[in-house]
């Protein structure tokens, strides 16, 4: 049985060791039930430890991990996911994503998508998806595994990078959008337009940026090492921005991409 993609989760990018354990523990304690990790983050074991110590039932959680480019070959993908499961102390994950399309990786898209579908058929993951794929590569991924199989495309989105062409395409295809880097590494927190909207709603700028993403039907996975920020971020779910707020945020688009590693990233739309 697969759960629908939760709209609000906690991210663990750049969190390692005790910091990762504490962040996930605090998040679970505050009521988060979706956790996003990845093989390359080097923190799956810490995430697993925090989950095990939390006392939260596995069935109540939604855990996402991502296959790193080195593990995309058909011979490596399933074994690497089994390794991830061991670290996470889990029999399955809810969602497994291909982390980057890595066109220069030497592994064909059809090969790794087929291997990912195989991981699902083996029961290692309930759902499969992609991350950092452009329109053309998303089309190829759908062709490889069939329509309706790709649960989400996790992409960088923020008020400074609104990626309208790609998000419109994904909506059309019925593929959920997961927004990462929604605060643009904290850059949007100093934005005067967002600050004015936040003041009007007696909210924080982070809450405004997250609410903006949620109101477009996207899932968000903000991370924080501080319990009070984790708690504050959750309140974005209750913040309702009006049409004027949304129109003002639309003007902030500046293609402000924060993450685009050479050799891993596609040619962006």
List its traits:
single chain, 269 residues, alpha/beta, TIM Barrel, eight-stranded parallel beta sheet, 10 helices, 8 strands, 41% helix
Describe the structure.
The chain is of the alpha/beta class and 269 residues long. It has a domain at 10-185 and 217-223: Alpha-Beta Barrel (TIM Barrel), CATH 3.20.20. It has ten helices and eight strands. It has helices spanning 17-30, 44-54, 74-88, 109-121, 135-145, 164-173, 192-201, 205-215, 227-234, 243-250, and strands at residues 10-11, 34-36, 62-67, 93-98, 125-131, 150-156, 176-180, 219-220. The protein has an eight-stranded parallel β-sheet, covered by helices on one side. Strand 3 (62-67), helix 3 (74-88) and strand 4 form a beta-alpha-beta unit. The longest helix has 15 residues, at 74-88. The chain is globular. The two termini are 34 Å apart.
Walk me through the topology.
Elements: E1 10-11, H1 17-30, E2 34-36, H2 44-54, E3 62-67, H3 74-88, E4 93-98, H4 109-121, E5 125-131, H5 135-145, E6 150-156, H6 164-173, E7 176-180, H7 192-201, H8 205-215, E8 219-220, H9 227-234, H10 243-250
Helix pairs in contact: 1-2, 2-3, 3-4, 4-5, 7-8
How would you summarize this macromolecular structure in one to three sentences?
The protein has 269 residues and is an alpha/beta fold. 41% of the residues lie in helices and 14% in strands.
């Amino acid at each position: 049985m697969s759960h629908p993609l939760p709209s609000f989760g906690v991210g663990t990018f750049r969190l390692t060791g005790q910091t990762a354990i504490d962040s996930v523990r605090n998040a679970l304690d505050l009521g988060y039930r979706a956790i996003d990790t990845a093989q390359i983050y080097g923190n799956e074991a810490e995430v697993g430890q925090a989950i095990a110590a939390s006392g939260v039932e596995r069935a109540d959680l939604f855990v996402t991990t991502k296959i790193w480019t080195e593990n995309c070959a058909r011979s490596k993908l399933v074994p690497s996911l089994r390794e991830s499961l061991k670290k996470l102390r889990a029999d399955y994950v809810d969602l497994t994503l291909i982390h980057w399309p890595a066109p220069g990786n030497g592994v064909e898209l059809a090969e790794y998508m087929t291997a990912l579908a195989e991981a699902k058929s083996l029961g290692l993951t309930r759902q499969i998806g992609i991350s950092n794929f452009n329109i053309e590569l998303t089309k190829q991924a759908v062709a490889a595994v069939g329509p309706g199989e790709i649960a989400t495309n996790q992409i960088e989105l923020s008020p400074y990078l609104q990626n309208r062409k790609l998000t419109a395409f994904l909506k059309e295809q019925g593929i959920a959008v997961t927004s990462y880097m929604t605060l643009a590494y904290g850059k949007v927190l100093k934005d005067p337009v967002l600050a004015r909207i936040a003041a009007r709603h007696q909210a924080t700028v982070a809450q405004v940026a997250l609410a903006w993403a949620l109101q477009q039907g996207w899932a968000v996975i903000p991370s924080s090492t501080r319990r009070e920020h984790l708690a504050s971020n959750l309140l974005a779910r209750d913040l309702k921005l009006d049409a004027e707020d949304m129109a003002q945020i639309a003007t902030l688009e500046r293609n402000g991409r924060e993450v685009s590693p050479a050799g891993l990233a596609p040619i962006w739309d």
